[in-house]
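From the thread on structure requests for the teaching lab: each student submitted one protein with a one-line request. Submission from student K.M.:

"Model DNA polymerase IV from Lysobacter panacisoli, tokens only."
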Amino acid sequence: MTVARVTSTSRKILHVDMDAFYASVEQRDDPSLRGRPVVVAWRGARSVVCAASYEARRFGVRSAMPAIRAERLCPQAVFVPPDFVRYKAVSRQVREIFERHTDLIEPLSLDEAYLDVTRTRTGLPTATATAQSIREAIREETQLTASAGVAPNKFLAKIASDWRKPDGLFVIRPHQIEAFLAPLPVGRLPGVGKVMEKRLEELNIATVADLRTLGEAELELRFGRWGRRLYELSLGIDENPVEPYRPTLQISSEDTFERDLPLGELESHIRRLAEKTWEGYGRELERDPERVARTVVLKLKTADFRILTRSLTPVERPTSLAQLAEIACELRARVPLPDDTRYRLVGVGLSGFGERHEAIAQRDLFAASASIGDEP
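Reply posted by the TA:
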């Protein structure tokens, strides 16, 4: 049965995804790694895989997998510690290529982004031609490959970019949407994780076509507004625009230790992570000097995986690395656990972002209130 309802948008969206990005950069820069199973990760029982080359993926190695499991799956793998400075430099190169075509770029991470190419700077005749031009420039200028999906909206473009990986291009045209989506597992829809997949399985829903058959009213009855959203996705409807700038809510750095440590031994780690967070904050200020952070956050994970966060918003926002590190260290005194508690992870963050003039006004208001309270 053909469903009459269609998306009202006429956007042309690309999703560009670098192929095995970190691992590919390592193979590019070290010819001895080419053709070999490369795992980008520190060795150790608590390390996780940042990226795996396609040679390693054939053995079942995947990102976010414990490194020790990756080593068991692929004993011949070459482990390479991550070098994010290099990866960020390449990511900037790729971003410059995107900007030749459009200003409407929404980065998702260092290695993927959405682009709205409904109108472009280049005057190329189609979104497909734009995607081809971008992929060719990436190959020529970075010696790396990227896969791209072309579709009328973001969620379809993301599915399409994965369709012919690696080094592929796949296009979903408006008249193809219903037929393309119908046989897909419901797990391919954004927001449908394992728990929701299980709930849908209990309703005998395995594919996108099954969702349509159940119908919008029944889905909304069972799942509320999310049910209505599921039905829209089953028809390929996604009105979310490409958002070039998303205000930063928090900047943080964290680390998992080789062995569990008591609270008293965390100071050097907190100061080291504060330095990394401050570097990230500096880059954010370069991008938007008027948006500043006011709150310091300390994150801890105990040996039994309990997560605690402690935060402080001082009267004067942190304006130096020394202030950030000092406040983060002092936040340990607010941890209400026994002294013999051991910790496997610590993180330091900055949050409470707002306009600089708002931070100044709040500081002055607090100071004025304190003065009034001190009067005899």
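TA comment: The chain has a mean pLDDT of 89. The radius of gyration is 24 Å.
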